[in-house]
Amino acid sequence: MSRLLAIDTATDALSLAIWDGQTCQDLHRVMPRQHQQLLFTLLDELLAGRKPADLELDAIVYGRGPGSFTGLRIAVSAAQGLAFSLGIPVVGISSLETQVRSFLRRESFGDSALILSCIDARIGQIYGQWFSLHGGEMTALGDAFVAPPEAVEGPVGDADRGYPGLAVGSGAAFVSSMPPSLRDRLRPWPAVLPEARDMLEPARQALAAGQGEDPMLAAPDYVQTRIGWKTLAEQGRSA
Which residues form the Gcp-like domain (predicted)? Predict the structure, then answer.
């Protein structure tokens, strides 16, 4: 099985995880606006005296967002630097998807649920994406979006399924401002954050499907805009 190092800094959490082929070690700290200063300090703590090369990693996994613009750039830059130095690919994983996986690992809501994964965009808007849980399988219902809470729409074609509804993540604090059809249906869980350990399984699946990327192609998913950020390839630069 693939050996992976995962990094997510899309939210107030700085989250790291290592899969060595047999076990997962992770470190998850809530530390707003300290990601850049402390990422490699905490990575050293997680490595416990080892060097990244000692792990014989197959890829670096990064949370591609959406989320904090600064946080996303930090994760992408760290993933690129580590991957270049080790000569391995990167895998970008949706932070909204990871957030749902982190929630479901800790909580159980039966066989089926409709889940809005949402992150506070801090500009009177939320980042969001709809997911369905059915038979233990999670499926994305459409793409990630950004919208004011009062303009959030339900997933097309899902209104009649009757699943219990949940809103998870920091954006769930704004459920009371959503349209009545959603406000009355969604149970808010705002204390949920994406954890890097929950990026490992989708990253393994992506690598098995040949979806590892050249580090030059790593880029955050801002959803709103990509102003201020270009991949190395778009800049016309080489490693």
Answer: 32-158
Question: Hey, what amino acid is at 151?
Answer: A
**pLDDT tens, residue by residue, 97-144:** 999 999 999 987 777 899 999 999 988 999 999 999 988 889 999 999
- Give the rounded distance of the alpha carbon of 22 from its chain centre: 23
- In a 13 Å sphere around the CA of 78, the CA atoms on its Cβ side amount to 30
Whether 142 and 156 have beta carbons less than 8 Å apart is answered as yes
Per-residue pLDDT reduced to its tens digit, 75-97: 999 999 999 999 999 999 999 99
Write down all domains in the chain, each with its CATH number in brackets.
4-95+194-235 (3.30.420.40), 96-189 (3.30.420.40)
